[in-house]
Amino acid sequence: MPTGVKTRNDISGIHELQTVTCNVRGSLGMLDGMKTPSIFRLDQLSVVDVSGADAGKILHNLTTNEVLSLQDGEGRETFVTDVRGKTLGHVCLFRHQGGFRLVGPSGQSDAISSHVDRYTIREDAVAESRDSDHVGFVISPSLARQCGLAGTEGVILKSQRIQRNAITVDVFGVRWLGAGSALLCIHQEDSERIPDALVELLADNNGSQSANPVGMEVGNETDFHEMRVIAGYPWFGIDLDDSNLPQEADRDAETISFTKGCYLGQETVARLDAMGQVQKKLVRWKITGGVPAPDTVLSADEKKVGRLTSIAASDQDGVTAIGFARRSHFEAGATATAVIESGADGGDGDGGDGDKVTGTVF
C-alpha cells in the first residue's frame, strides 16, 4: 500500500447552508494551515442496493449481524458469509430509502450480488451493484460531529439523505476512521458539482448570510488509508479476504450477533465462539527500526507469529501497522521482529544483511 507521497485536490468557495451546518474554521483548524485533511475522496467503493419485499429476510440469512430489526436510517457493520462461514464481504448495511444499501471497500459488489441472487429462490429480493454511480467522501469523526452528520449509537450506524441545489448526498455513519466517521455518497453524474456540494455541507454557521472563501484540502486514497491504518480499521481486499473467518478480523462486537438465529455459515461462527479463540486474528502493531512492506512476516523464538497487511508512516504517529498475529501474540505488549532491506524506509541502512524492525502489539 503506498504511503508518504500525497496528492490533494483543492476545493475553494463557501456557500450559505441553513440546515446541515458546522464551523469550518473551528473544525478544520483554519484549513489553510492544516497538514492532515479531514476529508478524503474515494473514487472506488462497493455499493449494493437490495430491494424487494423479502430483501430484509434474505440479507438476514446471509450476514453475521442483526438486520431485521433495523429501522429506516439505521445500519450495522456486518460480514457477508458463505456456507463454510468464510467472509465473502465486509460492509456497512443500512435500511435505506425503502430498501437496503450495503457500502464498503471496492471489489465486493459482484460477489455479494451473485450471492444474494443464488440464495433468492421464490423470495422477492433483487441485488443491484451501484458502484459506478457514486463517488465517496469520507469525513473524520471530529469533523462529522461538528457538522451534525450521521454517526453511531452503540452498535447502530445512522444514515440520512440530504438534497442541496438538485444534488443528492447520502450520508452514512461508518467506523473507517474511528467511531463517528461519515461517508458521503454523491452521484457520479454530479461529480463536476462535488466541490459545491461539499462546501455547502461544511459551510460556516456563524449567523451571517455568507462566509469568506476558504481553501479546503481533500485527501486522496493514499491519505485515507494512512489515517485508516492509524485508526485500526481493516480493509477488505487488503487486510482480509474470502479466505478468512469473521472472528479473525477481531471485530465481534461491531459485526456479529450471537443471538440473531440461523444464517449461512452460522454453525462455524458459533463453534469458534464456543471454543473461545481463533488461531489467528488481526491486531494493531507499533513498528520501530524501519518501515516494513506489506506481507512482512514477524517472528519470535524462531517461529512465525505475525504478518503485516497494512502499513502507515507519519511524523506524528510513527509507523503503525495492521496485521495478523498467532494466538501467542494476541495480547498488548507482545513483540516480534523481522529483517527488512537496509534503508527500505529511506534511511541510511548499514549495507549488511538488513535492518531489524520490531513490532509491538497495542
Biggest β-sheet: count, sense, barrel? 11 strands, antiparallel
Q: Tell me, what is the CATH class of the largest domain?
A: Alpha Beta
* Mean pLDDT across all amino acids: 84
Structural domains: how many: 2
Fourth-tier CATH superfamily name of the largest domain: Probable tRNA modification gtpase trme, domain 1
CATH architecture label name of the largest domain? 2-Layer Sandwich
Protein structure class = alpha+beta
What is the end-to-end distance?
Answer: 21 Å
Radius of gyration: 21 Å
Our count of helices gives 8
Helix content: 10-25%
How many E strands? 19
- Classify the fold: give the CATH topology of the largest domain: Gyrase A, domain 2
Would you identify the regions where 5 or more consecutive residues have pLDDT less than 50? 1-34, 204-214, 346-352
Beta percentage is: 25-35%
Task: Give a written overview of the molecule.
This protein is α+β, with helices and mostly antiparallel strands. The protein has two domains: 1-238, Gyrase A, domain 2, CATH 3.30.1360; 239-361, Gyrase A, domain 2 (2-Layer Sandwich). It is built from eight helices and 19 strands. The protein has helices at residues 24-28, 55-62, 109-118, 141-147, 194-201, 221-231, 252-255, 266-275, and strands at 9-11, 39-42, 45-51, 74-81, 87-96, 99-105, 126-129, 134-139, 152-153, 156-164, 167-174, 181-187, 216-218, 280-288, 297-300, 303-314, 318-326, 335-340, 355-361. The strands form three sheets. Strands 2, 3, 4, 5, 6, 7, 8, 9, 10, 11 and 12 form an eleven-stranded antiparallel β-sheet that branches. Strands 15-16-17-14-19-18 form a six-stranded antiparallel β-sheet. Strands 1-13 form a two-stranded antiparallel ribbon. A hairpin with a 2-residue loop joins strand 9 (152-153) and strand 10. The protein is globular and about 60 Å long. Mean pLDDT is 84; it is low at 1-34, 204-214 and 346-352.
